[in-house]
Amino acid sequence: MTIRCLIVEDEPLAADILKDYIAKITHLKLVAVCSDAFQAMEYLNSQRIDLLLLDIHLPGLKGLDFLKTLKNPPAVILTTAYHEYALQGYEFSVKDYLLKPIEFTRFVEAINKVSISKTDHLDKGVITIYADKKNCIIALDDITYIESQKEYINVNTLSGCYTSKYALSKIEEELDPRKFWRIHRSFLIAISKIQSYNAQEITIKDKSIPIGGNYREEILEKLKQLFGTTQH
Fold first, then answer.
1. For a 10 Å CB count at each end of the chain, is N or C smaller?
2. Domain boundaries in the chain?
3. Quick one: fold of 3-123?
4. pTM, whole model, 2 decimals?
5. CA-CA distance, 99 to 80, in Å (whole number)?
């Protein structure tokens, strides 16, 4: 499960250390490094961010003041050289508080807290999608299919559609392969929502979704095992 990280740090050396640590952990992905809160806000308003690595002492708007402005913040790990801010930071339900200079083992401990929290989120049967400038919590059982359109995805559900700037391959990594199948380079489907199928397409909510040539043999075998043999 990939955790998308945003570093907000005005000290280049401290930012480089965090970048190096993120690169060492395979399920972390660095989205960007911002030197102030205003740059960070642009990313939070345009992309899905799972983890904010936030320095407290930033130019202009300070880290804790920045947190106060966020209505639906992602998971937050605070970083600072001053331990006296720790208690104040926890008032914002931050996941952890890292004191500079940050050791790698301590960084891993903090990341594990975020990973456990994110896994719990999926265990509750929901996923968070950043759409329409807010974090939208979607029940996994409501998803019918997900369609890729260039750098965006459309998450189609029983109640509506959510458009997010996200890669189909990335959301595929976060979903249970026992419940969701990639059947085309542009489509992921919810297995439980299949209405009918043949060798060329699968129908979900009266929409015909093509089975890609590179996926056909594997998908037809899965369909056969799940639903039994029919004529193609």
1. C
2. 3-123, 140-227
3. Rossmann fold (3.40.50)
4. 0.57
5. 5
